[in-house]
């Protein structure tokens, strides 16, 4: 079957939209098939954009993978910024952050699958991205500010580390998605009903607060 390499209509009118569409399609393709298994032809087929335009904007598959990975991390960090944690009391702010992270990861399974793929590749592309490093530094700084406020108010125990807290929140939220197929196969799907997910979110919040709050 002959592949269409002609630019499709609309790209000149809104190139930024076209690039966003390509990245969204690429995220789905990379999440499903990995970096080595994903094909530019299949990414093109997911969009209204030609294969030629994908190469025009992103040069090669590796660059597109990097941009898709950066977009995935940008989405979660932008969501965190919109939580306005600084205007909330420390305990409520932490509850909101944990709940948001759990729900974001549950609703954005492509992001978690790309993180899993990066682990297979020893985080080579993530390490090469100054964009992602900058985003994650902001995430840790946000937690440092929250910890300082919680310690000052007397709500949080002393000696908390922002990176360790981020690890704890991520571990609870990522496992829920990354291990869903195997966990469901072994133990059934009850935890992945709406009610089951609501309970797990509450448990995640409870576990984090149980470790952080001053006793």
From TrEMBL:
Question: Residue ranges of the HTH tetR-type domain?
Answer: 16-76
Going by the UniProt record, its keywords in alphabetical order are: DNA-binding
InterPro entries, sorted:
Homeodomain-like_sf, HTH-type_TetR-like_transc_reg, HTH_TetR, NicS_C, Tet_transcr_reg_TetR-rel_C_sf
Among PROSITE patterns, the record links this protein to: HTH_TETR_2 (PS50977)
Origin superkingdom: Bacteria
Record keywords: Metal-binding included? no
Which residue spans does the record list as DNA-binding? 39-58
Report any Pfam family annotated for this entry: TetR_N
Q: Where is the signal peptide?
A: none
GO MF entries: DNA binding
What PANTHER family does this protein's entry cite?
HTH-TYPE TRANSCRIPTIONAL REPRESSOR SCO4008, TRANSCRIPTIONAL REPRESSOR
Q: Which protein, by its recorded name, is this?
A: HTH tetR-type domain-containing protein
Originating species: Maritimibacter alkaliphilus HTCC2654
